[in-house]
């Protein structure tokens, strides 16, 4: 898995792929549609298709390209999660803007970031957080959002991403205040998103994303499209396998009807 980056990155990925596979080989026998309101991701923490035990957290340290932040550090960069630092809110929790640099920790590169904080009363939890860290901790590609780091302290679960200057494609398409995107830009966004998906599907161990929608396509300052939100991702078929069977997850209106009906996903 994770065969999307440079040779150097792939070497890191290959070294850790075996551990990752152990986590991801568990299957769920049941297929059911989790209840989900509005247009947000539906998920179910009882799904065993993704790693979920708290002790799995110790394995994260093997991803040497992601930083383990303390809660204090993330409180510092978001000014204690101040309301005017909020970028948006989703099924996982609230997303804040922050800035990391040498003042936060010696040796850190100066970088604007987005900090996603798990809502402890929400539908998602440790399982989605860990799945996100496991997948994005290994995958690197210009059309996948970069996971800078994470925080796991007591029951706090946070994710730190590269900051995407133009926010989500959804905001550009549906916000009344946003000016319409030119067609050339729309085409290049569609191409970028498709390249992100192709990277996942062509990885050594294919990854099935399961949450492809405009709010999960983030745009950089030059409108480069990057896929985000891997909390529902799942390892795809391997070797002679033609498909994997899963509990149905995703977002109503975006998930493929045949997948919602059968719980079977194929990579063609
Ligand atoms: N890396 C990022 N850089 C800049 N803004 C971001 C970043 N990640 C998320 N956001 C902002 O936060 C909003 C909420 O994102 P989030 O992924 O939590 O929810 P969502 O995609 O709207 O819903 P869902 O929970 O169904 O995925 C996004 O629409 C976007 O505006
Ligand atoms: Mg999202």
From TrEMBL:
Binding locations of ATP: 116
Entry keyword set: ATP-binding, Kinase, Nucleotide-binding, Serine/threonine-protein kinase, Transferase
Highest taxon in the source lineage: Eukaryota
Root EC class: transferase
Keyword Signal recorded: no
Pfam families: PK_Tyr_Ser-Thr
Gene3D superfamilies xrefs: Phosphorylase Kinase, domain 1, Transferase(Phosphotransferase) domain 1
Enzyme Commission number(s) from the entry: 2.7.11.1
Entry-linked InterPro entries: Kinase-like_dom_sf, Plant_Ser_Thr_Prot_Kinase, Prot_kinase_dom, Protein_kinase_ATP_BS, Ser-Thr/Tyr_kinase_cat_dom, Ser/Thr_kinase_AS
Keyword Cell inner membrane: no
A single GO molecular function term of this UniProt record: protein serine/threonine kinase activity
Domain Protein kinase positions: 81-268
Family: Belongs to the protein kinase superfamily.
Name of this chain's protein: non-specific serine/threonine protein kinase
Source organism: Aegilops tauschii subsp. strangulata (Goatgrass)
């Amino acid at each position: 898995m994770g065969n999307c980056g440079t040779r150097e990155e792939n070497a890191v990925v290959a070294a850790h792929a075996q551990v990752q596979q152990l986590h991801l080989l568990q299957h769920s026998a049941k297929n059911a549609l989790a209840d989900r309101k509005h247009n947000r991701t539906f998920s179910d923490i009882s799904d065993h298709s993704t790693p979920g035990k708290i002790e799995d957290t110790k394995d994260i340290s093997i991803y040497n390209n992601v930083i383990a932040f303390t809660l204090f550090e993330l409180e510092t960069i978001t000014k204690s999660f101040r309301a005017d630092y909020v970028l948006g809110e989703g099924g996982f929790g609230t997303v804040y803007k922050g800035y990391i640099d040498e003042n936060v920790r010696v040796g850190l590169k100066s970088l604007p970031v987005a900090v996603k904080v798990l809502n402890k009363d929400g539908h998602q939890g440790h399982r989605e957080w860990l799945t996100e860290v496991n997948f994005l901790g290994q995958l690197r590609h210009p059309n996948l959002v970069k996971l800078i780091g994470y925080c796991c302290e007591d029951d706090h679960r946070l994710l730190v991403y590269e900051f995407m200057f133009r926010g989500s494609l959804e905001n550009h398409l549906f916000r009344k205040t946003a000016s319409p995107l030119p067609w050339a830009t729309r085409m290049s966004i569609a191409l970028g998103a498709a390249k992100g998906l192709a990277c996942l599907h062509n990885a050594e161990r294919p990854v099935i994303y399961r949450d492809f929608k405009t709010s999960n396509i983030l745009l950089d300052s030059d409108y480069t499209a990057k896929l985000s939100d891997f909390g529902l991702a799942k390892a795809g078929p391997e070797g002679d396998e033609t498909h994997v069977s899963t509990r149905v997850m995703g977002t109503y209106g975006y998930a493929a009807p045949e997948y919602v009906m059968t719980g079977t996903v194929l990579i063609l």
